[in-house]
Amino acid sequence: MGSADILPALYKCPAPYFEGDSSSTLRSSPCLGSSAHTNQNSPRPPVSPTLKALRLPWLTEEFAVPAMARAAGRERRLLAIYTGGTIGMRSEGGVLVPGRGLAAVLRTLHMFHDEEYAQAHRLPEDTLVLPLAGPDQRILYTVLECQPLFDSSDMTITEWVQIAQTIERHYTQYQGFVVIHGTDTMAFAASVLSFMLENLQKPVILTGAQVPIHALWNDGRENLLGALLMAGQYIIPEVCLFFQNQLFRGNRTTKVDARRFAAFCSPNLPPLATVGADVTINRELVRKASGKDRLVVHSSMERDVGLLRLYPGIPASLVRTFLRPPLKGVVMETFGSGNGPTKPDLLLELREAAEQGLIIVNCTHCLQGAVTSDYASGMAMAGAGIVSGFDMTSEAALAKLSYVLGQPGLTLDDRKKLLAKNLRGEMTLPMTDERRSSLQDGMLGCRVAWLLSLNGSQEADAMQDVLMPSLALAAAHAGDLDTLQAFVELGRDLNLKDCSGQTPLHAAARRGHAAVVAMLLQRGVDVNARNEDGHSPLLLAVRGRHQGVIGLLRAAGACLSPQELEDVGTELCRLASRADSEGLRAWWQAGADLGQLGYDGHCALQVAEAAGNADVVALLQSFKDRLSAQPQAH
Q1: Residue 46 belongs to what domain range?
Q2: Which residues form the Asparaginase/glutaminase C-terminal domain (predicted)?
Q3: Are 411 and 365 in the same domain?
Q4: N or C, which terminus of the chain has less Cβ within 10 Å?
């Protein structure tokens, strides 16, 4: 979803809030003219001092795209970039070689192309269309075949830059991208593309096969169809890899089997989605995309990086030779949790290389786990100036190193700091002692810190599932940003609901915590969530007269439902009779029609005039003038 998709939606209620024929609920007001319950075309209210104090530049831009939401629209258009790989290979002389014409093959398979629909709608020759993917939804896709095709073993940064630039050229034409790639270097490709493509707001899904699609028994059809469906039906703003019915974050994957269909795994992060009889989605794991920035393609990637795997007894002289120029960065695979030989001559070589400007990233060669400093040998590595790779795969670490070294104008310290940050979801950062200490300063934070310290047993997971919603709401109610940030670090979805349907956004809006509301909106929470009483965060903010919060919610697309506005006329008349200008202003800011009639057939302006409340009359008249000054839709 891009700018053109999001901006028209601002100030408009989602479809579920206008089910059925709403025309019977509209009526003309003698006070402010004819309008619906909610003034959807009301001008954006001025930014309040509270919002200005927050200094959030994205307030005037688009808000976070709801990740993993179902994609809307009758037709979704995708670009499938065919680079080569086993999926399209043919047998020549007893060996597999890249095969051309994948689009022609797919056109003959009904699961990949509905020829009847294509002819009825006169689709272009280069456009294929899947059978009906959902209620009145079609996925159209164009296959762009690389010239020449590549065996993935021959792929380099040069070819991956070309793929990224192809996505950039066609970015506005399509709602998603599928990259058909060989499996041998697919994890490398996914990692590199994740760093090349910054501010990604659309899905880019890599897939391939262990067996060619021409074979009777193959995995290519299932993988490609799954990738097309995931890219076409869901909003996934990141680079992913789809294989054997699982959708992984691309820079978390590694190839673990040369023959079986389950060729890839994500050792330190669960799949983003799993496909079976139903699609199971881990929404809290999907990265949220802010729509405020355009796609940036980083094509300047450093090629002089390498991978060094330590082994018992590795000679210091061999390490010295490997670390020589022109090498600028190296990913070093160590034992266990980041340990290595503590021989003085080996540590000296590493230390001298680091002092001369070579960046060394420490990654464990274990499939699961992370680099820590629990052991003396691990501490020795850190003492030699080596950067911890935490739980990154070697593929991700190599891609990240290439990306960071390719950024111009950075000092050595800047590059090391950037490597230690989670840039594209490639690593899980441990909770710092400072953050843990700050959490433990309060009773609420202490409980969250305790939850964070639990291991991943089933009992611990069950306890977290039970306690997290209540603790998240308590943190939002108290305005505790540190504790909420701890939830984010734990990978928890901040759309958590308690037994009454309250979300953290409800709690923060009720209390008027603008900074917490801003943080939650940045994380992509549902701005129009309703509790069991049907109340939205916006209604709670209106009742609390929290104008700063109302402005944030409205800018994010919040609106009042017809049910919430059912008796608004009577409430407005009550406020007018009490000269409650602040309350009236809150309703106006929330998009309510202040000309709605009360139970006795009068509107707020008439009540204010009868009560002699001159200030309220002036305020309501100013709102009426603003409404009249707006261009009328025809």
Answers
A1: 3-18+26-62+565-629
A2: 304-414
A3: yes
A4: C
